[in-house]
Each structure stands twice: as C-alpha cells, then as structure tokens.
Amino acid sequence: MKALPFPKSHRLLKPSDYSRVFDGVTLKVPHRNFLILATPNTLGHARVGLIFSKKNLRLAVQRNRIKRQVRETFRLQPDLPGLDVIVLGRQGLDKLDNSSVSDALNDIWRRLKKKHRQTASNPSSGDLRGTE
C-alpha cells in the first residue's frame, strides 16, 4: 500500500491563510454537521484548515476526535484539486459515531470535487452559458 503522508505543506497554518479563504470563498459545501469553504490556490495540491468551537463540541476529547477524522479522510483524498479548504463544525457533531462522521466526510469530499469540476468547466458563467 502506498504511503499517504500529511505534511505541514498540506495544512493551513497562518491566520493569513485562513483569512484568504474566508475573504475569497468560491466553493461552499454545506452539510448538516459540517460546512466546507474553499478557494483555489496556486500550489497544485489541497490544504486543509480546521475550525471546531467549544460551543458545538463541548469537550476537548470530542474536538480532537473529529479533527483526527477530518485529517485522516483528507489525507486519503490524493485527487483533491489545488484548493485551500476550511472545515467548520456545526452543532450535533458530538452525537455522531466515528463511522457516521467518516461517511459524512467522504461524501463532503466527493461533493467538493464535483463542485470544483463544475466551476472549472464553466469558469465565467456569462461566457459559456449558451454553448451547453
């Protein structure tokens, strides 16, 4: 089996990285328990940032469990396009078991790739509208 590392270059580390995504959101993938915000980057690979508040996940153990699962499912997505992605947790996340969280995240990554393909194939909505 091929090793799939998760180096620092695949993480959003600085506040400026996060603010760039928040200020220039081009893709949103909503889910009952997560919200994904993404913007293209020029690095050629995806980077992920995590935001889970105490309001939605009361205990540190809960926050850490969800963060580990997000990082692991992200790491197992080698075909993600060059995007900076922020994963936000919503209420009710603490009530899900590990398999439900993993299934939800895999669905979210699939939907993110699909949305990215749609926007990449139709870069300016005004120019290509009549050709389809």
Automatic annotation (TrEMBL):
Keywords: Endonuclease, Hydrolase, Nuclease, RNA-binding, tRNA processing
UniProt keyword tRNA processing, yes or no: yes
Keyword tRNA processing among record annotations: yes
Assembly and oligomerization: Consists of a catalytic RNA component (M1 or rnpB) and a protein subunit.
Recorded family membership: Belongs to the RnpA family.
Role according to the record: RNaseP catalyzes the removal of the 5'-leader sequence from pre-tRNA to produce the mature 5'-terminus. It can also cleave other RNA substrates such as 4.5S RNA. The protein component plays an auxiliary but essential role in vivo by binding to the 5'-leader sequence and broadening the substrate specificity of the ribozyme.
Protein name: Ribonuclease P protein component
Species in which this protein is naturally found: Marinobacter daepoensis
